[in-house]
């Protein structure tokens, strides 16, 4: 595909040269789980620990000041990256998307939800959102309802309009499904939520890495993402929240750094976003995530989206050649992201992934943390190939050849 100079990009990712098994170069198609890391991001760790490692916010000394400035500016950078004009005050660093959802579920949900209130999810939620809201609902007496996914793998928006009623307090929806690849109309869901007086939380774990995201155009109240899925490190993610909501909400974790004044009786909370970042944060990781944002912006988020769409279409078309392959999710187009989940009639997804591994092709097999959706699809598991900036059509050809091998082995 022509949107990106893939050959040049591949030089930034040393791991793509890894040879595994019988000395075969790895074909990495598990990017929806975790993306690989370019030298530019890896270098942040060496620079940080060699040059300015220190605790943040509390130091008078040079190193602490340098670390603090870099860490704080990383918040501004991530806010800008997803279209939040409020800068650091609207950008909390967390461990990952899961923690971002739990933060809001605990800090807002436990305090605000009660019996008779409704939380609306989609049938394609990742467990990170589904299990979290389910448990918070159980503890508060709220109900959970699920917007139906139709046979094409898209949300039934009429059903959404029915479900999101005046009892609804929270709508939580995945932006890009990590199983179906569907790009959901989250701005439309936000409008439905706001018309009903509810908040909308968008799980952007698969969206932020792969397309331009503008939280203000969506009018999201909360928006979550993970560094490790966007060419950044593990251990770090983000939670965007509208400033006025974050100001009103209770803290999630208590401790150092998140306070201004403490007595033996009580405490007051620090300014945003530090109110939500108790204890020593992931400093190098935060700075490295901002470097990943720079790296992706350099490639161009529009180009990345085009590349993803083109690879998804190519994979979809190649897999569609076979009668014994079922592909899940919408047909290629602007509302399908760069991943393809499928099943081969005669071979269990786990066996398929294992045979792929013999050819050094890394794909995912399992329920992709969407068990109820797999139940609905009538399967226990699926195989998933997911693409990123360094993947090529040739790698998809290797995938299809490996599927041929699996078919022969099991026939
Ligand atoms: N939501 C979606 C849509 C995801 O794809 C994932 C990762 N598979 C998550 C949430 C959870 O992300 P993390 O494990 O980084 O918290």
The total domain count is: 2
Structural class: alpha/beta
Mean pLDDT: 97
The CATH homologous superfamily of the largest domain is called Type I PLP-dependent aspartate aminotransferase-like (Major domain)
Bound molecules: 4'-deoxy-4'-aminopyridoxal-5'-phosphate
User: CATH class of the largest domain, anyone?
Assistant: Alpha Beta
From the coordinates shown, what is the CATH architecture of the largest domain? 3-Layer(aba) Sandwich
| Total count of helical runs of at least 4 residues | 14
Gap between N and C termini: 34 Å
Instruction: Return residue spans where pLDDT drops below 50 for at least 5 consecutive residues.
Output: none
GO biological process, one term: cysteine metabolic process
Protein name: cysteine desulfurase
InterPro entries: Aminotrans_V_dom (IPR000192), Cys_dSase_SufS (IPR010970), PyrdxlP-dep_Trfase (IPR015424), PyrdxlP-dep_Trfase_major (IPR015421), PyrdxlP-dep_Trfase_small (IPR015422)
Catalytic activity: (sulfur carrier)-H + L-cysteine = (sulfur carrier)-SH + L-alanine
Give an overview in words.
The protein is of the alpha/beta class and 411 residues long. It is 41% helix and 17% strand. It contains 14 helices and 17 strands. It has helices at residues 6-11, 39-51, 62-81, 97-112, 127-140, 157-163, 186-195, 215-218, 243-248, 283-299, 301-320, 349-358, 371-377, 393-410, and strands at 19-20, 24-25, 27-28, 91-94, 118-122, 143-147, 168-174, 199-203, 222-226, 237-241, 259-262, 267-269, 325-328, 339-344, 361-362, 364-366, 382-386. A seven-stranded mixed beta sheet has the order 4-10-9-8-7-5-6, with helices on both faces. It has a four-stranded antiparallel beta sheet with strand order 13-14-17-16, covered by helices on one side. The site of 4'-deoxy-4'-aminopyridoxal-5'-phosphate has 13 residues, from helix 4. One of its GO terms (biological process) is cysteine metabolic process.
